[in-house]
Amino acid sequence: MTANGIAQISLYLVTLVLVAVPLAAWLERVGDGRAGPLERAFGPLERAFYRLLGTAADAEQDWRGYAAAVLVFSAFSVLAVFALQELQGALPLNPQGFGAVAADSALNTAVSFVTNTNWQGYGGESTLSYLTQMLGLAVQNFLSAAVGLAVMLALFRGFSRRETATLGNFWVDLTRATLYVLLPLAFVLALALAAQGVVQTFAPYVTATLLEPTVDSASGQPLTGQVIALGPVASQLAIKHLGTNGGGFFNANASHPYENPTALTDFLLVLAQTALPAACALLFGRVTGDRRQGWAILAAMLIVLAVALFAAYAAESAGNPRIAALGVDQQAGDASPGGNLEGKEVRFGIARSALFAVTTTATSCGAVNGMHDSFTPLGGLVPLALMQFSETILGGVGAGMYGMLVFVIVAVFVAGLMVGRTPEYLGKKIEPFEMKMAAIVVLLMPAVVLLPTAVAAVTPAALASLSNPGAHGFAQVLYAFTSMGNNNGSAFAGLNANTPFYNLLGAAVMLLGRFGTIVPVLAIAGSLAAKKTVPAGPGTLPTHTPLFVGFLIGTVVIVGALTFFPVLALGPLVEQLQLAAH
Amino acid sequence: MSRKPHPRFDAALVRQALVDALKKLHPRHQLRNPVMFTVYVGSALTTLLFLQALSGAGEAPAGFILAVTLWLWFTVLFANFAEAMAEGRGKAQAESLRRTRTHARARRLQAPQRGAPQEAVPSDRLRSGDVVLVEAGEIIPGDGEVIEGIASVNESAITGESAPVVRESGGDRSAVTGGTTVLSDWLVVRITANPGESFLDRMIGLVEGAKRQKTPNEIALAILLASLTLIFLLVTATLLPYSRYAVEASGSGQVVPLTVLIALFVCLAPTTIGGLLSAIGIAGMDRMIQANVIATSGRAVEAAGDVDVLLLDKTGTITLGNRQATEFVPAPGVGTERLADAAQLASLADETPEGRSIVVLAKERYGLRGREIHELDAHFVPFTAQTSMSGVDLPGRQIRKGSVEAIERWLRAQGRGLAPLVRDAADAISRQGATPLIVAERGADGGEVLGVVRLKDIVKGGIRERFAELRRMGIRTVMITGDNALTAAAIAAEAGVDDFLAEARPEDKLALIRQLQQEGRLVAMTGDGTNDAPALAQADVAVAMNSGTQAAKEAGNMVDLDSNPTKLIEIVEIGKQLLMTRGALTTFSLANDVAKYFAIIPAAFAATYPALDALNVMALASPRSALMSAVIFNALVIVALIPLALRGVSYKPTGASQMLRTNLLIYGLGGLAVPFVGIKAIDLVLTGLGLV
């Protein structure tokens, strides 16, 4: 590790907090209907939407109505994105003339973008038309993030309201989150990115003549030109990060120079993918009337994030023990960056790739600027473990906060018992119904990760996709299902996932991981909203103290570790031990 | 507490519990506890694997599978034993209460009056509404209400208190408890409980695992534990295909045997808390019984841990039931000694505690010896509700003592009034939380006020400290009194309660409880009178005094056999302890898993991935001894924690944060560290004895 690397990571952490504070205040204003000038500008549009949807700004839904609206809307979205991919050959804005996408891949992609996973089994620049990218994928980048925000707001209302059956209106939350939060932020960021050199064009791809002709290794044909892919990238890139989507315009994602041209864009992208999740934690404190609660949850998230950042950075800086055994100096110095530079964004160095890898997996973004597959086993274990904490460390937009609150409920339950009271959080008693729903969420994630991984481990068709044998190959499969089950979308690479097996099983995993959490979370929200609020007293467990923050971290980490220790032992851990043993 | 608590482990109880532990192996019983049921199924599976190994086609040596199997069964049995121990202790307590009346025969009356025709029936056949006659020397056959007669009753069978109490029809002393004995006279009692529904029966139901209803908190915890169990089931089940992949990929070792996976699962599943959960709940009820409190539901006991407001009656709870004379304040122109002498004379025949305290004070202060009332040719005038006065008539003089209003009326009848200075003195005494008692004399020259006796409420010793303790626990105390606001404020300040409700009528009490509950608070109170019943029914934790009326007992959800209003504090502690024990053992159980992973994962995959031996941080001798040590530790830790489950974790009234810190240190960090030591120790013993 170098001083420069540590400084860059520290600068990021401080900037994140500075950005999250005003963002949370803005989110609160949007929630309260005080969006000011934007509301004056977009108000007519907003009301037109409501008339179109046959609802009103003050029409309230109970949790079942809210959940039904989420499910209906998402089902419609999957169909729309699927249809766009199948029909793109006959639709405009298709300068490369791409045809219909294979059905299993199209389904996987549709589900992937609607569930905010943005797992990509396809290569964007070689498969999808500009129209599909813009109208299908980019639109879902907005809407899937807005759905996450809406569900989170409903859960917040469960805590802040008392003795009521309703949680707000999904259509209103969806519309306002899109119009007043995501669109303005994405607009500003897209301009900044384009100014830095991210491409934004409808022009067809450009072919450059090679100075030194070469031979195609696969076909043996001589090559004289290189096709350079273009497209409306900046507009899609901003929301890809802000909405913790992560699906790259290009297959190489943020390691492509047109998607991430400068060190500044790299910093902005990392900041963008973590800003809203961090602000959501602070928003929770504002909505529930006790800002310390929001800070406590953000502190828990950032502590784990910081530990993960420095762990990944340390692992990558230490390099490969087998290379060290050959007597090669892997220390960073003036002449070399040191460490394991394989698969890194070489322009920005190890620290920035570690930062990108950790933030993209802590949140459910999944964009990459390096190849996680090429990290050292321990360095690769960090992103894997972060996803296995069930999207609680920042997590997806909205999704991270509602995922974390489920763990807060579990932590409060055990801690509350230890202070001799039936457990309560923010004055709401945690009773069998809440526990049942929380248990479904906690149980679901290991199920959608471990079971498909087990199926793949004994299915020849699945094993044929591995690029490495042994423990590393196992880690590739494990990473794929961990990423999809937690709606992350980053890939370990090295796994050929565009096969019917991974496309179809993956689609099921992503749907379960997303809506298997959303429905119980809304049920919890409904149950909490109906409860009385117990006033806090000296016998109440305080949930804003460092002690509770520590306990919450312990709960998330222990549950994650106990669930995944064996698979991590059989994957990255044993791989690292084997490297060290030789 | 007058009855001795049972010893935690006496030989007969342990023997009975061992037998019960075996009986509880019935699958129907096991199904009640999902965590232990999975262990039960696992044990059955390894038993089959052992039989398969005996036939020569086993996945591992038969001896090894047998050893694992035996210890898995022990795990189930130890959990059964814990529950049986808790049940046994509770039942022993309850039985000793119940024994007396099962054999009693009752005389049922055909009509609710003493002279009605009667028939003999066994007491356990009496139904609610039956009327029975009980005469001196007979045992009261069931809980009920006196409708005719007055008698002294020995209630020591229930309360342990040997002094007899009076029970009579009407009023607040009409409730009788089955199993107590009439000492003198007779009673006609209307039975109020059907067979099997009396307080005792309900309480016995709470200490029997099979009949016990789980409380909401217990259900919520069981859901959490069940979901963790399912996660670990997933984790271990998927290890089989992972292991197959690993063996094929690395080309060495063999697929993990099922026996090892089942053992790993049992070690990871929260068996420690799962096995002790039922025992913890029952033991909470046991502790209630030991405190001489009968709870009618487990839910009430848990609610006691949540109480944030305690309503306490002033008289008998905060102050001693009777006031004491502490000062003589003479009227202008009257000597203190004269006042003291008159007050003493008026009180000589007064057997109330107040009266006696006046005699004593006069003697102590002024050396006035108590005189025999007949020597003085005196005639004692007792207190009546009409006059609100008492006193004495001596030849040529009448002395009266009473409230300001009563004496004023008496004087006015003689054409005299109350001196303003005396009235001021009386008001001043009121303001200080005491009661003024005016003494007046009517001699040859008419009526004359002599002065005021200050009767002070005596706050019970140590009560202030108890309230401070409650405050630290986060519980607010509210004193309920019929006194005026001035007096109430003064006593409240002296006793250290947080708040008071003065001039309270029963409906005020009910309104206060409703208002507090509306704010989301949990309210506890004690009561004994019929007019307390509505408030008792409304309160979340309502403790009725055993000496109280049947209506009060029916309305409450607990009965204190000692009729001690400060018992509420103990009840709250027991409730908190119950919840804390659950939380502490859940934390301990989960923290244990870390060490178990470090023992079993390297052992299970040692042949496939020798590099994983680096995770064998305890340096356990061999894969087999590592696995056995973890399984044995997992079983033994249940036994080791039985005393803690029965006793409850120690409770000190401190703030919530401090309590969490302490318990996390002990059960969280302890739970992490203990198994590392324990598993290593067992491994040393196993290898030392050459058993593996």
TrEMBL record, chain A:
<feature type="transmembrane region" description="Helical">
    <location>
        <begin position="177"/>
        <end position="199"/>
    </location>
</feature>
<comment type="function">
    <text>Part of the high-affinity ATP-driven potassium transport (or Kdp) system, which catalyzes the hydrolysis of ATP coupled with the electrogenic transport of potassium into the cytoplasm. This subunit binds the extracellular potassium ions and delivers the ions to the membrane domain of KdpB through an intramembrane tunnel.</text>
</comment>
<protein>
    <recommendedName>
        <fullName>Potassium-transporting ATPase potassium-binding subunit</fullName>
    </recommendedName>
</protein>
<keyword id="KW-0813">Transport</keyword>
<dbReference type="InterPro" id="IPR004623">
    <property type="entry name" value="KdpA"/>
</dbReference>
<comment type="subunit">
    <text>The system is composed of three essential subunits: KdpA, KdpB and KdpC.</text>
</comment>
<feature type="transmembrane region" description="Helical">
    <location>
        <begin position="504"/>
        <end position="526"/>
    </location>
</feature>
<keyword id="KW-0472">Membrane</keyword>
<dbReference type="Pfam" id="PF03814">
    <property type="entry name" value="KdpA"/>
</dbReference>
<keyword id="KW-0633">Potassium transport</keyword>
<keyword id="KW-0812">Transmembrane</keyword>
<dbReference type="GO" id="GO:0008556">
    <property type="term" value="F:P-type potassium transmembrane transporter activity"/>
</dbReference>
<feature type="transmembrane region" description="Helical">
    <location>
        <begin position="6"/>
        <end position="27"/>
    </location>
</feature>
<feature type="transmembrane region" description="Helical">
    <location>
        <begin position="393"/>
        <end position="419"/>
    </location>
</feature>
<feature type="transmembrane region" description="Helical">
    <location>
        <begin position="296"/>
        <end position="315"/>
    </location>
</feature>
<feature type="transmembrane region" description="Helical">
    <location>
        <begin position="66"/>
        <end position="84"/>
    </location>
</feature>
<keyword id="KW-0630">Potassium</keyword>
<feature type="transmembrane region" description="Helical">
    <location>
        <begin position="547"/>
        <end position="569"/>
    </location>
</feature>
<keyword id="KW-0406">Ion transport</keyword>
<keyword id="KW-1133">Transmembrane helix</keyword>
<keyword id="KW-1003">Cell membrane</keyword>
<dbReference type="GO" id="GO:0005886">
    <property type="term" value="C:plasma membrane"/>
</dbReference>
From TrEMBL, chain B:
<keyword id="KW-0547">Nucleotide-binding</keyword>
<feature type="transmembrane region" description="Helical">
    <location>
        <begin position="34"/>
        <end position="54"/>
    </location>
</feature>
<feature type="transmembrane region" description="Helical">
    <location>
        <begin position="666"/>
        <end position="691"/>
    </location>
</feature>
<dbReference type="InterPro" id="IPR059000">
    <property type="entry name" value="ATPase_P-type_domA"/>
</dbReference>
<keyword id="KW-0630">Potassium</keyword>
<feature type="binding site">
    <location>
        <position position="532"/>
    </location>
    <ligand>
        <name>Mg(2+)</name>
    </ligand>
</feature>
<dbReference type="InterPro" id="IPR008250">
    <property type="entry name" value="ATPase_P-typ_transduc_dom_A_sf"/>
</dbReference>
<keyword id="KW-1278">Translocase</keyword>
<keyword id="KW-0067">ATP-binding</keyword>
<keyword id="KW-0472">Membrane</keyword>
<keyword id="KW-0633">Potassium transport</keyword>
<feature type="transmembrane region" description="Helical">
    <location>
        <begin position="260"/>
        <end position="283"/>
    </location>
</feature>
<dbReference type="InterPro" id="IPR023214">
    <property type="entry name" value="HAD_sf"/>
</dbReference>
<keyword id="KW-0812">Transmembrane</keyword>
<dbReference type="GO" id="GO:0016887">
    <property type="term" value="F:ATP hydrolysis activity"/>
</dbReference>
<feature type="binding site">
    <location>
        <position position="401"/>
    </location>
    <ligand>
        <name>ATP</name>
    </ligand>
</feature>
<keyword id="KW-0597">Phosphoprotein</keyword>
<dbReference type="GO" id="GO:0008556">
    <property type="term" value="F:P-type potassium transmembrane transporter activity"/>
</dbReference>
<dbReference type="InterPro" id="IPR036412">
    <property type="entry name" value="HAD-like_sf"/>
</dbReference>
<feature type="compositionally biased region" description="Basic residues">
    <location>
        <begin position="99"/>
        <end position="108"/>
    </location>
</feature>
<keyword id="KW-0406">Ion transport</keyword>
<feature type="binding site">
    <location>
        <position position="528"/>
    </location>
    <ligand>
        <name>Mg(2+)</name>
    </ligand>
</feature>
